[in-house]
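User:
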Amino acid sequence: MDTLIPAAQQQATISLALALAIGLLFGLERGWHRQQPEYASGPGGVRTFGLLGLLGGVAGVLASETTPGVLGWAFAGVAAASIAGYLLKARETGHTGITTLIAGLLAFALGALAALGHRTTAASATVVATLLLGLKPQLQAWVGKLDETELQATLQLLLISVVLLPILPDRGFGPAAALNPYELWWMVVLIAAISYVGYFAVRIAGAHAGIPLTGLLAGLASSTALTLQMSRLAQRPDADRNLLGVAILLANATLFPRILIIVGLVQPALLRPLSLPFGLMFLVTALPSLLLWLRRAPAGGAAPVHTQNPLALGSALRFGLLLAAVMLLSRLAADRFGDAGVLALAGISGIVDVNAITLSVARMHQPQVSAFIATLAIVLAIASNSLFKTGIAWWVGTGGLALRVGLPLLGGCAAGLGLLWLATQPATLPEPILEWWWKNGR
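Assistant: Predicted structure:
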């Protein structure tokens, strides 16, 4: 049986319905906004925006059936009428905000976009725009708390990711084509973004949110910086070293999920080999913090922990140079000395930075290094880094603090290395576990 309504007409009807819905959603938010006393006389409401969205849909249908110029002239006419109405209303009420004016033009444009066949894009953009309109108080409060340093950090993150990254060549340079500028800078952006999130996590939680919470959040930015800060606090006569130890252990425990996130983005094939040793190392590192928490002083409270801005361009460039050096040395060491060279470099470079060797080894996995060697190299880097942090706790802090954090940190590394050693011994682990763990073998 033939349909009573042609397919083209059905599609046009659906597009117009969506265009109307887009306008009504804008009008719902703007109509609620008008109920607030300070904006009671503001222009626009549910009916106005509904009509604007529908008008955009009609213009889009006409443009698709006739000529694209129809849409341009329709938009110009709507813009002129909206601006004239805005000027009259502004003269009458003194209200000079243009948000509603822009929202009306956007409703028209998105209605037209839906009519031209881009329905999903138009619907998604409508939801995002409505959320932005409704989050005005929260956005204003957040901007009011933003200082100049944090604004510069945000702009610098956008600079190194949106501006610099796309223009870099995506091919290898140098010995054995070991240095790919695009991949290298993408890794810099990845680490900077994680540090950015950690920095603002501490910022939002507040400087006095509590030492354990601050330690947990600050670990996303820099567990080494957190260890140094807590070690300095341990020198105070009234310092609660159990509580400070909790913060250090929690900050270092976040290192494992952070590395898994990095590896998952760069080399997902390494997630399974890292899962068992990292899980064991996380437990051995984090569980003693519970014991220290139970033994803390009753009056243990918050202490300010200052995190530096992690997104200065100088810091990004230094990390990029360090990463380039580690990647180049890793490739040369693998070519010259094989697996032993990669492991030796991991143990040495891990003292300075775990991220660089992790990214380098993850990028080299298959065919340069096996899953076992890549996992062992990352665990060795964490072990040398943990030893370095234990030294910070002893040298900058006290012997008691070093004992509290050193045993779990080094114990976790010993557990991870021990598990990897068992994986090399025949019949020490059940075959199903080994098969799942390594998937494609060592």
